[in-house]
């Protein structure tokens, strides 16, 4: 059997439902027998009626059964949607409950009743021997008292679970915790600069318990580094910034690195005015060489020796030595990180 696993869609407005539609279409295309959503389907319990109706309609047209748990953003006690869903959509109650996914495949789960729950649902829990035991939940792995629905490695070790699908943390992760496989799907589509990079949902094969990542995101937030070390003036800096090939449907910003021969500020201003994109300047510039030259540090000693060679060199030799100085400063900076 194959099923789709995701979490943290955070639907707030009607247009956000497009992500849910793409997720359900992906399940249909992959021939999945179930869809599992690990909490925070909604960003708030108090969505508008139009949005609630759109979510209900999409779930009603799902190509297979849907199992979901309520999270801290859409807790069970106050989310009206979860009291009126189609028959093939199962919302886990606020205590450990089991459903049968397929012959020999048991799905356990529990919903968050309130916005803050620190109950340790796996404390003392052990699933039956034989078959495959899967947990769907919303919480924090390696969590301690006060964390949201925490789970510890020790609790997993005695649970007889083979796979745990855990929502709540927006950065995806896969790892082994003793004899159990932990899958944190992460958010399936970034919403801002604190959620950069590629985002996925996962197609799970219960025979091998393999997890194949699949992207249905319509947009990505990406950062691209631009090294200005070899640029000799503002024109070359701007040309290098503009030379990046950016894929479609990407919200991007540039991170300027390296050691520039002059301040990148004019190039940055021109780039922002032309593209409207954000730029972060993390470069070192030669304007700071006088200060560096006076420091009693390894970097200061390097600058003093390099500048002495540059000042004594012929005009033809200076560009090569200046480039060596920039590369050396960059290497020293990276060695400190």
Task: Tell me the CATH architecture of the largest domain.
Answer: 4-Layer Sandwich
Mean pLDDT: 91
User: How many domains is the backbone divided into?
Assistant: 2
Number of strands: 19
CATH class of the largest domain: Alpha Beta
Which fold name is given in CATH as the topology of the largest domain? Purple Acid Phosphatase, chain A, domain 2
Strand content: 25-35%
Major sheet details: 6 strands, mixed
Helix content bin: 25-40%
Low-confidence region ranges:
none
- Shape call: elongated
- The DSSP helix count reads 8
Order of SSEs, N→C? EHEHEEEEEEEHEEEEEEHEEHEEHHH
Radius of gyration: 26 Å
Corresponding CATH superfamily of the largest domain:
Metallo-dependent phosphatases
In terms of quaternary structure, what is this? single chain
Alpha-beta content class:
alpha/beta
What is the CA–CA distance across the termini?
46 Å
Describe the strand arrangement of the main beta sheet, using strand numbers: 4-3-2-1-13-14
């Amino acid at each position: 059997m194959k099923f789709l696993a995701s979490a943290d869609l955070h639907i707030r407005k009607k247009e956000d439902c497009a992500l849910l539609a793409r997720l359900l279409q992906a399940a249909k295309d992959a021939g999945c027998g179930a869809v599992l959503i690990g909490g925070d389907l909604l960003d708030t319990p108090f969505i508008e009626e139009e949005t609630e109706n759109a979510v209900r309609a999409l779930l009603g047209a799902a190509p297979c059964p849907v199992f979901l748990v309520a999270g801290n953003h859409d807790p069970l006690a106050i989310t009206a949607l979860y009291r009126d869903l189609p028959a093939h959509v199962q919302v886990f109650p606020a205590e450990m409950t089991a459903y049968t996914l397929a012959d020999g495949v048991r799905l356990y789960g529990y919903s968050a009743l309130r916005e803050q729950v620190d109950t340790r649902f796996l404390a003392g829990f052990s699933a039956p021997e034989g078959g495959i035991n899967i947990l769907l939940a919303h919480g924090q792995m390696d969590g301690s008292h006060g964390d949201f629905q925490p789970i510890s490695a020790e609790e997993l070790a005695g649970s007889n679970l083979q796979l745990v699908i855990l929502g709540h943390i927006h950065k995806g992760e896969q790892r082994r915790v003793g004899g159990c496989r932990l899958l944190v799907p992460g958010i399936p589509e970034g919403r801002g600069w604190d959620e950069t990079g590629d985002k996925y949902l996962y197609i799970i094969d219960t025979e091998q318990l393999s997890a194949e990542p699949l992207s249905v995101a319509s947009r990505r937030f990406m950062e691209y580094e631009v090294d200005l070390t070899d640029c000799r003036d503002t024109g070359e800096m701007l040309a290098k910034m503009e030379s990046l090939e950016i894929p479609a449907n990407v919200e991007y910003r540039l991170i300027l690195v390296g050691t520039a021969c002059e301040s990148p500020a004019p190039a940055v201003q021109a780039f922002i005015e032309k593209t409207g994109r954000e730029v972060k300047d993390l470069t070192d510039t030669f304007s700071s060489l006088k200060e560096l030259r006076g420091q009693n540090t390894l970097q200061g000693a390097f600058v003093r020796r390099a500048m002495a060679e540059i000042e004594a060199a012929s005009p033809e030799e200076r560009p090569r030595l200046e480039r060596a100085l920039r590369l050396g400063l960059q290497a020293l900076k990276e060695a400190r990180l």
